[in-house]
Each structure stands twice: as C-alpha cells, then as structure tokens.
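task queued by scheduler; priority normal; single chain, no ligands, no partner chains; default sampling; output format set to structure tokens
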Amino acid sequence: MQIYWTKINKIIEETPEVKTYMLECPEGLTWEEGAHIHLALEGFNAGEKPNRSLIRHMSISTLPQSNSIGITTRIKEQCSEFKSTLRNHKIGDEVAVFKIHSNVPLKREDKNVYLLSSGVGLATFRPLVLDYFDRADNVNQIHSLNIDSSRDFLFPDVFESTPDKKFTAQFVDNRKDYYEEVKNLAADKDGLFYIVGSDEFLVQNIEVLREQGIKPEQIMLDKREGQLPEFLSFELSI
C-alpha cells in the first residue's frame, strides 16, 4: 500500500459547519467520480499499529482533472479526535492519503439517475454531477434530492436546477417531505437510484424504494461489493 503525504493547498468554508480541504494531488494519482479515499493525520503511523482515531474514510468531492483532492466534511463544535485535529490544520500542513476506491461511478445506461443524500453526502455526488455536465452521454437526466435540516445547503454553484442540462436539484429540510419525494421519484420503475448517508439512512431509503417496486440492482450504494447483500436483501412484507 502506497501512502502519499501531501499538503493542504486551500481551505474553503462551505457553511458554518462544513469545510472543504483542497489537497495537492500527488503525481500519477487518479480516481473515478464517486470515489473515496483514506485520509490520515500526522502521527497515525507513529506506533507499532496505526492509530485508527487519526484515519477516516472520506469521499472525494472533486474530479481528477481539477488536479486537487477535495475533502468535504462537517465539523461540529463537539466532534471526534480526528475532526478536532483536522479543524486545527492550516494551509501548508501535511496529511496522508491512501487506498482510493470507487463504489458509485456514474452508470451510463440511457436511464434517469436519482441521487439521494443526506447533508454532506452531497460531496460524494458532486463529481458525478460535474462528470455528467462535462459529458451527458447515455444518461437521460439527473435528479438530486438532499435532506439537510441546517438549511445551509451545500455546493449551490453545482446543485442548482439547470433545465437545459436536464439536471434538477431539490432540497428539503425534514424527513417526512424527503421520503414523500423519494416515493414520487420511485414512480420511475426503470431509474437508477444512488444513496449516500449513514447506514440508517441507507436502510430507510432502500425500504421505501423496495416497497415502491424498485429492484435491488437499480440501487447503488457507496459500499464494498461484499457489504451490499447486508443492505439490499430487504424482504418485502406480504
């Protein structure tokens, strides 16, 4: 496993609680849209065993052609050791990155694509939307639905409805409205549904989609292939 030590080039305050750390891209490093990476802070490998409290699995919110690895994360006042340490990092500080993998690249199957996310989960979908804007081949249209009770919605420059590009961005601030909209979207029995969020959020979305007749193979999760049956083996009640 190759570990790349790289510098923070820029820190963007997206909202009062959400920051994007733009990391210098090590030479030769590339990835697919929807990828995640392991981000580690100084000291994580100082002992005999890695200090896992200084390592996190993070989505990359940029595309490779930006030549920068964007890491977008919510940092609340009360937070983990990892996030409190990251919060104190400044431009020029070094972090380590390793093990890139993509579970949710954009499928180009001449279907409608629905992106279902909670809060900062939009960071995973940002590169998919940018990739679609660059090349819309074999994608009918994309609809993004995000729930965020903070109302500080992320990436307004990207997640803005653009009819001429066949892209719709929808935000709601409560679960009741969100799941009603999921049911409405599931009226498209041939669509592809991508879900990003906590495990609980994934399970709730899958239950709603399956009850509306959406098949497991139409549901994309940011999970390793071996983990998918745990989520997608949802049994419909008779």
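post-processing summary
- The chain is about 20% helix and 30% strand.
- The mean pLDDT is 92.
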